[in-house]
Each structure stands twice: as C-alpha cells, then as structure tokens.
Design goal:
Its cofactor is FMN. This is Pyridoxine/pyridoxamine 5'-phosphate oxidase. The protein is α+β, with helices and mostly antiparallel strands. Helix content is 23%, strand content 29%.
Length: 239
C-alpha cells in the first residue's frame, strides 16, 4: 500500500532533505490570467509597430514593470550547448532588436560561433510576453560608438574594467582596475569605445505576441518572415 503523505506535504513530490519541508511547492502556485485578450484584427500591420505598442504599455508608470527593456537573451555554442541571461534592450526598429555587450563574453562568443538566438520579454504584470527568434549580427561600429558616447561615464569605464565572464579572485580586482582607468581618463576626458565591446542585433524570423488567458488557453499570435523580400504573415498558434 502506498504511504500517505503527512498533512501539508506535496502529494506528488518526494520528500527531499536538500529542499526541506518548508520550501514552497512550485506545482501548487497557480494564477489565472484574466486581464486581456489578443485577436488578429487588433494587431498592427507589422511586428515592429505591434512591439512598439506593447513596449509603450509596459513602460507606463502604472504597468508595474520596473525595467520593461529587460529581456532574456538565449544563445548557443557551436556544439549546441545553450545559455541564457537577462540583458537590456537598447534599440529596436524594422531591422531587429539591439543589445550591447563585451564581444569576448560568453554570449558574444556564442553569437560569433553560432549566429542565432532568441529574446523573451517577460512582461508578467501585464500577463504578456514577446518572443523573437532569428539570426544575430553585429551592429555597425558607427552605431556602437554613438551609443557608447551616450552612456554615463561610470558605465563607460565599466565596459573597460570587466573582462566579462572571466573568473576573478575577488571584487577588489574590479575596484583596482576601475581606479586605474579613472586616472587614465579623468572626468571631462572622453572615454573611448573599447574595441572588444559593441552591439548585437537579433534579426527576427519570427516574433510571437503572447497574451495570458483563462484555463491556460492563451492567445499566441506570431509574425513570421515568409520570404527574403521581407514579407510577413500572421499565424495563430495553439497554446
């Protein structure tokens, strides 16, 4: 006869001393999405116009989203091992979505080895998400330098300080390097753009707009590139 779990225990999860009895059971966390709907006739003519609409909604003060430009950027190595991290969107237009990074970082190296990726914008407070999948390319040096010049001085120095994704002994290494570079380029002196730093553009082949609905029957409408001539079609996907 199967044993009966004690009161309050998860009926489907085996007891684990590593997790402990007080850890919340993720399977029991449920939320019903009821605030919106998404129909084909509500969509803009292009994915970039639709993204601009939803991005505007996400950036309004009452939306409850502290960083609407935060996006999960997924890449994969040449042998197909995936990795993901949260980055910040810095530009978008009909060509795609732009983020900036150290090209020697893991994501920079993976984008060079395997030039495909995806972005997820998780706007949970609005019960929405946007998923873009496509190829990844470097932006022009002109675009990179223009953006770098607009950054706060501390962020400019930080781009030089960090050998991103490399192992360091302690935070003291960063502090010492920052002090050294601050002396090299004192306040009022332009900080040059690092040659190993720049923009990556995800050029989408698909952009999906997801709106949460009741009973997990969500609305999923996807713009898909249909040809090299930049013709797009809209499809509804089963949830």
């Amino acid at each position: 006869m199967a044993s009966i779990p004690p009161p309050g225990a998860s009926p489907h999860r085996a007891a684990s001393p590593e997790v402990g009895p007080d850890a919340p059971d993720p399977a029991g966390l449920r939320r019903s999405y009821q605030t919106g709907r998404l129909e084909t006739d509500q969509l803009a003519a292009t994915w970039v116009e639709q993204f601009a609409r939803w991005f505007a909604d996400a950036t309004t003060p009452g939306a409850g989203i502290p960083e609407a430009n935060a996006t999960i950027f997924a890449t994969a190595s040449g042998d197909g091992r995936p990795s993901a991290r949260t980055v910040l969107l810095k530009d978008f237009d009909q060509r795609g979505f732009v983020i900036y990074t150290n090209y020697t970082s893991r994501k920079g190296q993976e984008a060079a080895e395997n030039p495909f990726g995806s972005l997820v914008f998780p706007w949970y407070a609005l019960e929405r998400q946007v998923v873009a999948i496509g190829s990844v390319e470097r932006v022009s040096r002109v675009e990179t330098e223009r953006y770098f010049a607009s950054r706060p001085r501390g962020s400019q120095l930080g781009a030089w300080v960090s050998h991103q994704s490399q192992i360091i002994e302690s935070r003291d290494v960063l502090a010492a390097r920052e002090a050294e570079l601050a002396a090299r380029w004192p306040a009022g002196t332009p900080v040059p753009t690092p040659p190993f730093w720049g923009g990556l553009r995800l050029v989408p082949d698909t952009v999906e707009f997801w709106q949460g609905r009741t009973n997990r029957l969500h609305d999923r409408l996807r713009y898909r590139r249909a040809s090299a001539a930049d013709r797009w079609i809209v499809e509804r996907l089963s949830p």
